[in-house]
């Protein structure tokens, strides 16, 4: 569902739609960007390493909202 919401907003600069990947760190939404490599380029500009459309060391970057909730 997040992907559908982000699809409508990926051209808005303030919304980091390029950060929405599937649960395994695969760039499944890259076809929604203007250029096929744009999503990967944006992520790499943030320091992530991508190989074959998958974020390497994904556990390091994964945001788990349940962890935040547990701390509150």
UniProtKB/TrEMBL annotation:
One of its GO terms (molecular function) is methyltransferase activity. Keywords: DNA damage. It comes from the Bacteria. Gene3D superfamilies: Winged helix-like DNA-binding domain superfamily/Winged helix DNA-binding domain (1.10.10.10). The keyword DNA damage applies. One of its GO terms (biological process) is methylation. The keyword DNA damage applies. PANTHER family: 6-O-METHYLGUANINE DNA METHYLTRANSFERASE, ALKYLTRANSFERASE-LIKE PROTEIN 1. InterPro entries: ATL_DNA_repair, MethylDNA_cys_MeTrfase_DNA-bd, MethylDNA_cys_MeTrfase_DNAb, WH-like_DNA-bd_sf. This is Methylated-DNA-[protein]-cysteine S-methyltransferase. It comes from Indibacter alkaliphilus (strain CCUG 57479 / KCTC 22604 / LW1). Residues 1-47 form the Methylated-DNA-[protein]-cysteine S-methyltransferase DNA binding domain.
């Amino acid at each position: 569902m997040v992907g559908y919401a982000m699809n409508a907003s990926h051209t808005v600069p303030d919304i980091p739609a390029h950060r929405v990947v599937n649960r395994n760190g695969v760039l499944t939404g890259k076809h929604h960007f203007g250029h096929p490599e744009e999503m990967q380029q944006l992520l790499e500009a943030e320091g992530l390493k991508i190989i074959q459309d998958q974020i390497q060391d994904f556990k390091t970057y994964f945001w788990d909202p349940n962890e935040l909730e547990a701390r509150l």
